[in-house]
Write a structure and sequence with these properties.
The chain is mainly α and 139 residues long. Helix content is 90%, strand content 0%.
Length: 139
């Protein structure tokens, strides 16, 4: 009987060691992954900005060199300005919604983290209840 008890303890030790290794690796790899993703996001932003600016510059150069008169009316200028403002406002709303969702998810994770032991105790009591029904105590 002591062999089973010892094997059970060894199994628990193995599980503990695997969990410790897993979270230790995560603690080291997640910050690196975050930095890599931030750098990638930054490069995408710079590429997007440079592409837009290069095309605007090309458009201006074409108009200057071609001599084409592409004057737009004041109402069209106003419309373009309004559309730009509306696009910025829409992006601000989307950003605020995304931030609110992220903050809510963060709070939910914090609540779960703060109550992990409470959930474990609840599960332990449920397990004990079911075990008492199916595995009667031996005297």
């Amino acid at each position: 009987m002591s062999k089973v008890s010892q094997d059970s303890k060894d199994d628990s030790d193995v599980i503990d060691q695997v969990a410790k290794k897993y979270f230790l690796e995560m603690e080291h790899s997640v910050p690196h992954m975050q930095q890599v993703l931030f750098d990638f996001q930054n490069e995408c932003y710079k590429t997007w900005k440079n592409t837009i600016n290069a095309n605007i510059s090309l458009h201006k150069e074409f108009l200057d060199k071609s001599g084409l008169d592409c004057a737009i009316s004041d109402s069209m200028k106003s419309l373009v300005g309004t559309v730009g403002d509306e696009a910025l406002q829409y992006r601000t709303y989307c950003k605020n919604i995304a931030i609110a969702n992220i903050e809510s998810a963060k709070q939910n994770a914090k609540t779960l983290n703060d109550n992990a032991e409470l959930f474990a105790d609840l599960n332990r009591k449920t397990m004990q209840y079911w075990m008492s029904a199916f595995f009667p105590k031996r005297d």
